[in-house]
Amino acid sequence: EWVELLDANGAPLERISLFDAFAASEHSAWLAYRESGDLLHSNAVRPLDGALASANEAFADGNLLLSLRNPSALAVLDPRARRIVWLATGSWTGQHEPSVLASGHLLLFDTGSTGMRHETQGRSRVLELDPATLAPVWSYEGSEAEPFFSATCGAVARLANGNTLVTETDAGRAFEIAPDGDVVWEFFTPHRAGER
Length: 196
Prior knowledge:
Elements: E1 2-6, E2 12-17, H1 18-23, E3 42-47, E4 64-68, E5 73-78, E6 83-89, E7 96-100, E8 106-110, E9 113-114, E10 119-120, E11 125-129, E12 136-140, E13 155-158, E14 164-168, E15 173-177, E16 183-188, H2 190-193
């Protein structure tokens, strides 16, 4: 798997192998126990602006936050050194769309699926994490009566009003939740959710 850096016109500037970046890092042994096939399934790359560097120097301006779905890991790549400088696993599995919030926390969509086989826990979650401890500071997983679940992909974004927009991809649903967990808006696409 590769991270490719492009110029403003979309022309390739540099291509960095994630496997080489792991091999050049203190996390090289982490790849040794991976199964064959789609080992990393990197599904997101986010440039970092240095806002979290006080919590951890790996989050320096210009580094890249990566989501590695199949091993359920987050990583930071230093593209100048061409190596992984931070790696974290936690209570999440099969995550998508990590982002850095203005609060200094990380936000991600936890699919609740593990590895290439999409084994499930039965529900997905939205997690807001403290980047220093990886402890959840806020989460949403629906209710017993209305859980949500998207095994293969999903997205999450914090809105300017403080609410969180969630895309439950497999079910064809998008919804907005307030910080207290109330669903304030939702949409079901008939292309995935069916007639109802």
